[in-house]
Design brief:
With 381 residues, the chain is of the alpha+beta class. The protein folds into two domains: 206 residues, Thiolase/Chalcone synthase (Peroxisomal Thiolase, Chain A, domain 1); 166 residues, Peroxisomal Thiolase, Chain A, domain 1. The strands form four sheets. A nine-stranded mixed sheet has the order 5-4-6-7-1-8-15-14-13, with helices on both faces. A two-stranded antiparallel sheet has the order 2-3. Strand 4, helix 4 and strand 5 form a beta-alpha-beta unit.
Length: 381
């Protein structure tokens, strides 16, 4: 059986509202217990993020849903609503859907009435969700099931980062005469996450004019069989490492314990995220017979620039070193958009004017939730 070549022929993005500076963050997210954060300066110094985007007004009112932002990024792929009708598959990844049901992708489809009745898919996950959506669209075109597909990665976490999410928990701590600050595992992510969406158009035919990105391969690996949960939401982590679901808490406990906030075990993150990602990258490059020296652009999704040197040194240790002048990241200017981050890097590079024929672009997306990774190689043509 023969398979099609698959090309990314268009990329796009959508950011809500104006960028938010480090100094202005708490104007949007609010002050917990009416006091400036103790951790904010430390986290921002390490993560290197200078600005981000929030689908919020300063009084906390939502300006866009996740599905709406995603649909707006998909519209930006096309010059007219009529062109939208050519889409045969919609594959949308996010870790922050607007609701548990219906799925994220069907809600996106609802914002795009020009697209006829087609298959839509919503991969679950965290940062890798966007790449799972990518792979589904890629495979559908690869096998000839469809000739044109769209995938997306997006996030809208800002509303969950607002101070009122944690206020009941803080008041309870005050009543117990304990430290009236939420745990670092909860507050840490308030200074990390950004809202936005980005989309790719996949086709079996490359552009007649301008560049296209041929998808050479895409691979994924999970280490959940080896490592316990690191990043979680809608649950609590027990002393033995298991998770207790929000469904097993009372409504009052869900509020008082901030069960719906997103949390991260920072110690577990720092111990595992870089080493395991390096192991997976070495294995996938060897599988496909690719040397890291062949890579022209390396696009690693990083939640924080704290990991930059650690990734660089680990790759050298593994014999897969890539010099900094080949790295292309935009974390400082757009923030950590989770499942959308790698899309936003590709989109910026695609439109940068820097790419030339035969350039090879290596994508690396880690997911700390329970340590899974996605890798892909694209070639400019």
């Amino acid at each position: 059986m023969s398979f099609n070549q698959v090309y990314i022929t268009k990329t796009s993005h959508f950011f809500p509202n104006e960028p938010v500076s480090n100094e202005d963050m708490e104007s949007y997210l609010g002050f917990i217990n009416d006091k400036p954060s103790k951790s904010k300066r430390i986290v921002l110094r390490n993560n290197g993020i200078k600005r981000r985007f929030y689908a919020l007004t300063k009084d906390g009112k939502a300006t866009h849903t996740n599905a709406e932002m995603t649909a707006l990024s998909i519209r930006a792929l096309f010059s007219s609503p009529e062109e939208l009708k050519s889409v045969q598959l919609l594959s949308c990844g996010t870790s922050s859907p607007d609701q548990l049901m219906p799925s994220h992708a069907v809600m996106v489809h609802g914002w795009l009435p020009e697209i006829k009745g087609i298959e839509v898919v919503s991969p679950a996950g965290v940062c890798c969700a966007g790449m799972h959506a990518f792979k589904y669209a890629y495979m559908a075109v690869k096998t000839g099931e469809v000739s044109r597909a769209v995938s997306s990665g997006s996030e809208r976490f800002s509303r969950l980062l607002r101070s009122e999410t944690f206020e009941d928990e803080v008041q309870k701590l005050i009543q117990l005469e304990e430290n009236p600050y939420i745990g670092f595992e909860k507050e840490f992510l308030r200074w990390m996450l950004s809202d936005g969406a980005s989309s790719f158009l996949f086709s079996e035919k490359r552009n007649e004019e301008g560049i296209s990105l041929r998808v050479d391969w895409i691979e994924g690996v999970s280490y959940a069989n080896e490592v316990e949960t690191c990043m979680y939401m809608g649950c609590e982590k027990m002393a033995d490492g298991t998770l207790k679901s929000y469904m097993d808490y009372t409504p009052a406990e869900i509020i008082s314990k901030s069960i719906l906030s997103v949390k991260q075990d920072v110690k577990l993150l720092s111990e595992n995220i870089v080493p395991l990602g390096g192991v997976g990258l070495k294995a996938v490059l060897e599988k496909h017979g690719v040397s890291s020296s062949e890579v022209d652009y390396f696009l690693p999704h990083m939640s924080s620039e704290f990991f930059k040197d650690k990734i660089f040194n680990r790759l050298i240790e593994n014999g897969t070193g890539i010099p900094y002048d080949k790295w292309f990241v935009n974390l400082s200017s757009v923030g950590n958009v989770g499942a959308g981050s790698v899309y936003l890097m590709v989109d910026e590079l695609f439109h940068s004017g820097k790419l030339k024929k035969d350039d090879k672009i290596l994508l690396l997306v880690p997911e700390s939730a329970r340590f899974s990774y996605m890798y892909a190689l694209l070639t400019v043509c």
